């Protein structure tokens, strides 16, 4: 296949909180990249699960939390995809010769 037929858009990485450890006395130690987005995050972004799988968005069914940053990243990703799809669907303008007057 030619490279012109496919447009690649990078799927955002899900961000999850690191687990609290006893050696840090329960202090929040930050965030890391997770396995996938929770189902609640995907639904909050306005995407159904079937569409998410078609778009290759990773989903972690074990997670229950909803992080606003992940929801915003999914919404931005959805906007990028829709802009590209709309740009591909638009038809180019027809060239009409200017010398032909009736």
Q: How many DSSP helices?
A: 3
The major pleated sheet works out as: 2 strands, antiparallel
Number of domains: 1
Compressed to H and E, one letter per element, the order equals EEHHH
Number of strands: 2
Radius of gyration: 21 Å
Q: State the low-pLDDT regions, or none.
A: none
Spatial strand sequence of the major β-sheet: 1-2
Shape: elongated
Report how far the terminal alpha carbons are from each other: 45 Å
Amount of beta strand? 5-15%
Question: Structural class, judged by helices and strands?
Answer: mainly alpha
Mean pLDDT: 82
Describe the structure.
- With 102 residues, the chain is mainly alpha-helical.
- The protein has one domain (7-84).
- It contains 3 helices and 2 strands; from the N terminus they run E-E-H-H-H.
- The chain has a two-stranded antiparallel sheet with strand order 1-2.
- The longest helix is centred in the C-terminal third of the chain and has 22 residues, at 68-89.
- The termini are far apart.
- The mean pLDDT is 82.
Which features would summarize this protein structure in a list?
single chain, 102 residues, mainly alpha, two-stranded antiparallel ribbon, 3 helices, elongated
Topology:
Layout: E1 15-17, E2 31-33, H1 39-44, H2 49-54, H3 68-89
Antiparallel strand pairs: 1-2
What's the gist of this structure?
With 102 residues, the chain is mainly alpha-helical. The protein contains three helices and two strands.
């Amino acid at each position: 296949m030619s490279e012109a037929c496919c447009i690649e858009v990078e799927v955002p990485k899900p961000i999850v909180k690191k687990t609290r450890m006893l050696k840090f006395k329960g202090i929040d130690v930050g965030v890391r990249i997770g396995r996938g987005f929770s189902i609640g995050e995907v639904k909050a972004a306005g995407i159904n699960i079937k569409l998410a799988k078609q778009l290759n968005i990773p989903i972690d069914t074990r997670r229950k939390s909803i992080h606003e940053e992940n929801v915003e990243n999914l919404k931005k990703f959805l906007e990028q995809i829709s802009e590209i799809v709309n740009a591909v669907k638009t038809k180019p303008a027809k060239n009409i010769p200017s010398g032909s007057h009736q």
